[in-house]
Protein: CBS domain-containing protein
Amino acid sequence: MAQVFISRVIGLPLVDASDSHVGRVKDIICYTRPDGRAPRVKGLVVELFAKQRIFVPMLRVHHVSAHQVSITGTIDTRRFQRRAGELLVAGDLFDRPVEQGDAVARILDVSMHEVRSHEWELSQVALRTNTRVGRFGFGGRSEIKVESWSEVPWLHASTVRTTATLVAEFADMNPADVAKELHDMDPQQRGEVLEALDDETLAEAIEELPEEEQIEVISALATERAADVLGEMDPDDAADLIRDLPDAVAEDLLEHMEPEDASDVRRLLVYGEFTAGGMMTPEPVILDTDATVALALAHARREELTPALASMCFVCRPPLETPTGRYIGAVHIQQLLRSAPTLLVTTMMDEHLEPLHPNDPLAKVSRFFATYNLVVAPVVNDAGHLVGAVTVDDVLDHMLPDDWRGDQMDEPEDTGVTRG
Structure:
């Protein structure tokens, strides 16, 4: 993707998904990183019509053009408050002097580029260089040049980020990026960060770590804290992690977990790791037989659901928590979106979709997904009860080599390829 100079972004209108004018971009906020890596763009400082400034994370930025910045989703309208370690590009860098040998340069502009979808970094610095004026006022001249961020040593992040700064940064980062940051830390700093992170953020990050590091992290926590973190993880991921722990440690953690969370995990541990039962989540979208399309869509739009789980609703007799009453069938989200809100979901179920059995092996599960072009599939036991659902990401996770997460952690951050 071409470079975007930040002076051209500042002042642009910010518009939402309905093309309504939200406010104007006033600055770009970044955070510095050690080892000379370019600062990562954290988000935008936007001024609303009421002159209040708010923070908009880059995860919400859909497109940056010459005329406007487009965003998706909802935004937090609380007043922007700068955190420790944050860098305001216009406020902190523009017009800053930079010593360059016998010349004095000032920063005119800074560019950013998208290294992958929704992830931006600062990349180039535009400098106006003024050679020193001679004794009698002669000899001075001005020159503008653009240099890579890495070629301006003065700008490198030379200080180590504090634990408080790291925790603040992680609040707005993708779990996979938090995991990579944890992977790159020295043991002492990682221990401090683990203690400071909230349980939910840590649980999401652990799910993205290689298996060996998952064990290291959970083993480094006190038993009560480790049990709380496991309770925040998806039950299938928690079960996979517990399987790799010594039996005594695993049982101790299960005893300290909340009974409901422990019950979900114990039910998954009954099945082999590479079976439909071992891969499934016990918390899909489940509806009663009298549910309408409107009710189904309300369940499917719950924020905590992954896109895969939200793509299909399962109809069962009560009880509606796994293991449910008798499994009736499944309905696809596309069918719901095309139907009247008052229609019953039982009138539009997929009659050709046969459920998986908990003991079906990985090979059968993967062929099932390929045959039906699915991203989620029901798992029903011999008694005809829905016990969970397998998502395509869980299938891929079990099909890839054991060390695939570790290989991903060791990839260079900027591959030169933009994904989006």
User: Anything to note?
Assistant: The longest strand covers residues 103-116. The CA atoms of residues 319 and 325 lie 5 Å apart. The first helix runs from residue 6 to 9. Confidence is low (pLDDT under 50) at residues 412-420.
